[in-house]
């Protein structure tokens, strides 16, 4: 068993999510490209040349671009969406 408590569990969950994300990323290899900018950052571009995501590492850029494109595919809430609710009873 791993020692270290909560931080070890978080590290394992983060690692496992990266493993699953890499498997999913292999399914869409030609949807975007990642290039290094002049400032040392990585930017992903769509096939049309539109900038999608900028990140500090190439792996993070690929992962977040996949997440972003998956969100567009599944449907994102419109910008400026507000949620209202009421609480009944005594607070």
Q: How would you describe the overall organization of this protein?
A:
With 91 residues, the chain is of the alpha+beta class. It has a domain at 29-73. It has 2 helices and 3 strands. The protein has helices spanning 6-25, 58-74; strands spanning 32-36, 42-46, 51-55. The protein has a 3-stranded antiparallel sheet. Strand 1 (32-36) and strand 2 (42-46) form a beta hairpin. The protein is elongated.
SSE layout and pairing:
Elements: H1 6-25, E1 32-36, E2 42-46, E3 51-55, H2 58-74
The fraction of residues in strands falls at: 15-25%
Q: What does the overall shape look like?
A: elongated
The secondary-structure class comes to alpha+beta
Average per-residue pLDDT, rounded, comes to 76
Order of helices and strands: HEEEH
Oligomer: single chain
How do you describe this structure in short?
With 91 residues, this protein is α+β, with helices and mostly antiparallel strands. Helix content is 41%, strand content 16%.
């Amino acid at each position: 068993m791993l020692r270290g408590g909560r931080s070890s569990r978080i590290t394992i969950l983060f690692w496992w999510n990266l493993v699953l994300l890499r498997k999913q990323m292999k399914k869409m290899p030609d949807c975007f490209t990642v290039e290094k900018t002049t400032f040392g950052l990585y930017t992903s571009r769509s096939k049309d040349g539109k900038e999608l995501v900028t990140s500090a590492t190439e792996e993070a850029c690929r992962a977040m671009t996949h997440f972003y494109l998956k969100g567009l595919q599944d449907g994102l809430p419109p910008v400026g969406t507000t949620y209202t609710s009421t609480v009944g009873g005594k607070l």
